[in-house]
Amino acid sequence: MKNYNKNFIDLFIDCFRKFKIFKLLISIYDKYKEAILYLFFGGLTTLTNILSYTLLAMAFKVEYMVSNVIAWLVSVIFAYITNKMYVFESNTSTKKALYKEIASFFLARVFSWLLDVVIMFVGISVLYINDIIIKILSNIFVIISNYFISKFFVFKRSGKNEKDYGKVEFS
């Protein structure tokens, strides 16, 4: 792969390839790159969601469901960008394909958002559990469901284009 097709994460990892001490870690990274990056960016997405929620709910005293919706929107935009660029290195060769991918991603996230809303509602309004604890538990379920939906439905690779995966070209 030529450098102009690499993202900053690949370039960063390449800096460590020449050191023997990192050989084992690099081989693990190479073997499980997608899962490692998904967990890393999923963690950042979760952090974005929780911090957005906490800021709105605690600092600005916004009602918990409104805070949850806004936190969801912020984190979904962050997740789409990082999943497309770094995790699944998605190839969208036309604007139509890009729009379809964005729509699929957001639709899939609506499903996981509904899961989040149900968990938040039951945890806070029915079981009277602390909202931050429920938010963290909810995000665990959301991350797992989002990975499988993204991998197998939104960013699924077609075998014939796999070597060009990651390039974005518009006709």
Outline of this structure?
The protein is mainly alpha-helical and 171 residues long. It contains six helices and no strands.
Brief descriptors of the model:
single chain, 171 residues, mainly alpha, 6 helices, disordered C terminus
Q: How would you sum up this structure, described in words?
A:
- The structure is a single chain.
- With about 170 residues, the chain is mainly alpha-helical.
- Helix content is about 70%, strand content about 0%.
- Helix 3 (about 35-60) packs antiparallel against helix 4.
- The radius of gyration is 18 Å and the shape is globular.
- The relative contact order is 0.12.
Fold blueprint:
Elements: H1 8-14, H2 23-31, H3 33-59, H4 64-87, H5 95-126, H6 131-154
- Order of secondary-structure elements: HHHHHH
Number of strands: 0
The biggest beta sheet reads: none
* Amino-to-carboxy terminus distance: 23 Å
Oligomerization state: single chain
What is the count of helical runs?
Answer: 6
Unreliable spans = 160-171
Bin the strand percentage: under 5%
Helix/strand class: mainly alpha
Shape: globular
Computed Rg = 18 Å
Overall mean confidence score, pLDDT: 87
Helix content: over 70%
